[in-house]
Amino acid sequence: MKACARFQLLFGFLGLIFLVKLFYNQHMSEKEVKFNRLRNLRQLLLREMCNSDKVAFSEGKGSVEDMTSNDLGRFTVDDEHRFIYCHIPMVVNTDWISLLHKNSNLKLLNSLPRVQMLEKLKQYTKVLFVGDPFVRLISVYQEKFQKHDAYYYQNYGQHILRLYDNQSSPPQTVEEASAAGVLPSFYNFIQYLIDPQTKKPFDTQWRQMYQLCHPCLIQYDFIGHLETIQEDMEHLLRVLKLYNNIEFPADGDMTSEYVSDWFRMVPTEEKRKLYNLYKKDFALFGFLKPVELINY
Length: 296
Known about the structure:
Layout: H1 2-52, H2 54-57, E1 75-78, E2 83-86, H3 94-100, E3 106-108, H4 114-123, E4 125-130, H5 133-146, H6 150-164, H7 174-180, H8 186-194, H9 209-213, E5 222-225, H10 229-239, H11 256-262, H12 268-277, H13 279-284, H14 291-294
Parallel strand pairs: 2-4, 4-5
Antiparallel strand pairs: 1-2, 1-3
């Protein structure tokens, strides 16, 4: 009887383990199905938008073969894991990027002979992360102007202060500007962007995402979003066989209230002009039109 009782207890315990594993596998399966559905929707939307006006979205180029080495300047190659990543500034922070390239020898795609560039673009997994265009502009302003970046003060900040903040003689150096508490406001930055006289294409830090990574010419295998970066990165690292007890970095929660606060001092008409500048990024990557900001 005791042996029978022990057998029943063991059988019950094993049964419980089986049920737990079954539930866990079903849960992961449902999560994976949901993720794949979202990924497919992103890819479908991108292809439909590209096909609707490929000349405009591809800036006159017909295929990858028409792209110059300069067009491919944002692409990093990881030969060990056979993937290519197009980096868009102010979308994914360096902690996240380090997860992709951990212990790898990297090279720029455009440093390779052209035949190798085209071959790797065909054979490797191609990865892109994008973010809401307006949120990205906030991050650019914080990083390059609020933090008193010397290069961006000398090459842009002084110019912006003269034109849009009525400062005929702004501080000569970033150190002087920092000591005096002088910096372009976020509104000044927006004024600079929407000014028809501003040179284009923009600096890479705030250039439109489609101009940096050419999604209508390059068939990306994976497109992640900043807004779902944890789920996207987990899936990508599994696909690339890089997922191994990784602790994910924390990212700030960019709520609609957060964005609205930043744009509060920007007049509606100027927000509409800004939206039109980045309209293609909103459309291609499925970001919602910020109707609460532009009022149409």
